[in-house]
Amino acid sequence: MEHRAALTPSTCAELLDEGFQITVEESPERIFDDNEYVVACQGKAGFNVKPFGSWRNAPADAYIVGLKELPEGEDGPLPHTHIFFAHCYKNQGGWTDILGRFDAGKGTILDLEFLNDAQGRRVAAFGYHAGFAGAAIGVDDWCQQKLHPDQPLPAYKPFPNEHKLIAYIKERLGRAVEANNGQIPEVMVMGALGRCGRGAVDLARAVGIPEDKIIKWDIQETQGGGPFPRILQSSIFVNCIYLNQPIPPFFTKEMLNGQRALSVIVDVSCDTTNPHNPIPVYTVNTTFDNPVIPVELGQANETNPPLDVCSIDHLPTLLPRESSEAFSRDLLPTIKALKNRAESAVWGGAEDLFKKKVLEMRAVKAQQSA
User: Fold this and answer.
1) Under 8 Å between Cβ of 226 and 250
2) What is the dihedral sign for C-alpha 124, 128, 131, 137?
3) Separation CA 339–CA 262 (nearest Å)
4) Is 230 exposed, middle or buried (0-12, 13-18, 19+ CB in 10 A)?
5) Backbone dihedral angles phi then psi of residue 58, each to the nearest 5 degrees
6) C-alpha atoms less than 13 angstroms from C-alpha of 113 in its C-beta half-sphere
7) Which of 21, 64, 134, 182 has its CA 20 to 30 A from that of 192?
């Protein structure tokens, strides 16, 4: 259900005005249909539309701008420079294979996740809408547990805008609180001061969770290191941290067998295959078709309720149009800097990181074959 785009019709039109040449691939999945690009870019020099998958035969000097992982089932060398979320710099599953393809083809990854300014801040991120959508699913799953405890949380389709999403969750929450004897769930957001955490907090407020029921933790509250038993006192836990180094777990599976209010975990950070995942109670990503999975624990009771995990790794696509527009607008100045890429610290840093990761990949493969 991935419908987002790194470049939208409006940002493509602006890039064409700056002298860029842009080829948009036809796509039945993208939230912006082909005609929206045609209309926005009509009459502008350098604009083309080509069939899906044409990037493989693009000119050698073309930048291939995408969003998520490359098509599955392919292992050939990649000669182009790709700008996308590669998800292969944190030892994720298959990371050596991905980097190996670029190494073999003498191509380059300029990873969207690691485009940082001089202060080390990401120039563009989907974080806000990831937190917003993740918190929405967390609250909705809590509602499902109260309203239909014997039925799994239904599948999701993208919402046309955030107002529709908020209205849907508010209506469900009202009925669920009534079914829960008027008790409102407490929502705890880890990483509450970042973009992702702010999105989660804003969703909680928007659907009617009182401020005293929104627990906001960040560096100050966690500097002593986990585990953190306080998490178990909240009904819904939303993890919004950016994991860039090993940290102790937030809680252990053994802790969950004691008394707790916690019944929903939303891992927005979604470091599922990272060996240092601070939520070590699940091992698979969930999907919009099956948004949550149960954590296998002992017999459920009043003090040890059932526990679900949501670990969808593309949460912003629940609001694909708004999240794409916000991301693309933030990314635009950096894309414009491709004209003088050699002088750009952002692009230079991304390329240096790619080269470093390739060396790490070669070392791992050499060790494996030794």
Assistant:
1) yes
2) negative
3) 50
4) middle
5) -70, 155
6) 16
7) 182
Q: Compute the mean pLDDT over every residue in the chain, rounded to the nearest whole number.
A: 95
Contact status, residue 260 vs residue 77, Cβ threshold 8 Å: no
Active site residue 87: yes
| Region for 225 from its dihedrals, namely left if φ exceeds 0, alpha if ψ lies in -120 to 50, beta otherwise | left
Q: What integer pLDDT is reported at residue 303 of this predicted model?
A: 67
The secondary structure element, H or E, covering residue 293 is strand 293-294
CB atoms within 10 A of CB 315: 28
SS3 category, 309: strand
Sign of the Cα pseudo-torsion (337, 338, 343, 348, in order):
positive
- Tell me the sheet residues that pair with 238: 189, 266
Q: Can you give the pTM of this predicted structure?
A: 0.84
φ/ψ of 276, rounded to 5, equals -105, 20
Distance between CA atoms of residues 141 and 152, nearest Å: 9
Q: How far is CA 150 from the centre of its chain?
A: 29
CA–CA dist 285, 197 (Å, integer): 20
Query: Residue 227, preceding bond cis, omega within 30 degrees?
Result: yes
Rounded-to-integer distance, Cα 60 and Cα 83, Å: 14
Give the tens place of pLDDT for each residue, 226-278: 999 999 999 999 999 988 788 999 999 999 988 999 999 999 998 887 878 89
Please state, as a whole number, how many other Cβ atoms lie within 10 Å of the Cβ of residue 322: 19
User: CA 173, 174, 176: angle at the middle one, nearest 5?
Assistant: 60
Out of 3, 80, 82, 87, pick the active-site residue: 87
CB 262 within 8 A of CB 235: yes
DSSP H or E stretch at residue 117: none
Which helix (H) or strand (E) is 348 found in, with range?
Answer: helix 345-369
* Catalytic site includes residue 68: yes
The token duo for 181 is 């004897």
- What is the bridge-based pairing of β-strands 293-294 and 308-310? antiparallel
Please tell me which residue in 68, 90, 276, 365 is annotated as part of the active site: 68
d(CA 234, CA 136): 16
Query: Taking the CB of residue 74, how many other CB atoms lie within 10 A of it?
Result: 9
Helix (H, G, I), strand (E, B) or coil at 64: strand
